Structures are given as C-alpha cells and as structure tokens.
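Suppose you are handed a protein chain with no further information: no name, no annotation, nothing but its sequence. What can you learn? This example shows the usual starting point.
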Amino acid sequence: MMRVGLYPGTFDPITLGHMDIIRRATALVDKLVIGVAINRDKGPLFSLEERVAMIEAECADLTAQTGAEIAVHPFENLLIDCARDVGASLIVRGLRAVADFEYEFQMVGMNRAMTDEVETVFLMAEARHQAIASKLVKEIARLDGDVSKFVSPSVRDALSTRLRG
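A reasonable first move is to predict its three-dimensional structure. Written in structure tokens, the prediction is:
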C-alpha cells in the first residue's frame, strides 16, 4: 500500500525552511502532497495560483534529483478532511521553536479526536533554516532587505516584483 503524507501550509511564500522539510519528508512517504491552505483571513501576498506555481517550480528540481513523487493540492476545508481527500495517513508538520510546539500539540489533539487513522509527525528544519518564517521574509523584503538566505532566487525575484511592481 502506498504511504501518502500531507504537508500543509500557506507557503506565502515557500522558503528554504519549507523546502528542507519537504526534502526530508519525501524520505518518509511514497508520495508527498503539499497542501496549500486557502486562508482568506491571512491576506496572502501571493494568490493561490501563484503559490501553487511557486511550489511546483521549487519542487521540480527535488523530484528530478530524488525521483520523489510530489503533488500540490489547494484546500479550504479542515486539515483532517484534506488528509482524507488526498488519501494521506500521515500529516507532516515543521517545527521551528518551542512556541510552535504548543500550537501544534493542540492541533494534533483535535485531529486525533476527529480520527485516529491519521498520524502527525514533526520535523525540525536544519539549524540554518529554523528561524525562517514566511511572515518575516515578507517583512524583510518589504523593507528592501536581502532575503537570499531564506528563499530561492526565483522566490526572491517574485517577492521583489510583487513588492516593487
């Protein structure tokens, strides 16, 4: 049976920290679905279509290098329902700091109350990527800072175009 994992997030924009988690998660599953949350309340900088296209472009090299099966799936429903929709038995969550754990711990408890058929695993990004947060990357880019340590060149260019365009 194929083991499918779901890595959800808003990915606004996708960062090197996200890519590190994606790369490592592909070793745990046969197929990794990247769930792109449609969260109108967050007011994303990039449209859903732009975020999906960025993720697909960023993951193309990884797929070519590793042969990993990666799919991108937008969702607006409950995370646990999205997991069911894509056939995932595993939810992958990235942790940056202890503060993330408290929120994630609550989420796991709620998801487990809804179903015990889906497990959640936590991955920590490599130390050099642990502090990266999309929100902070956007703030640095808005203030003309260099984000090249946090995102790929193509994402950096997309940020620059969006904020200066």
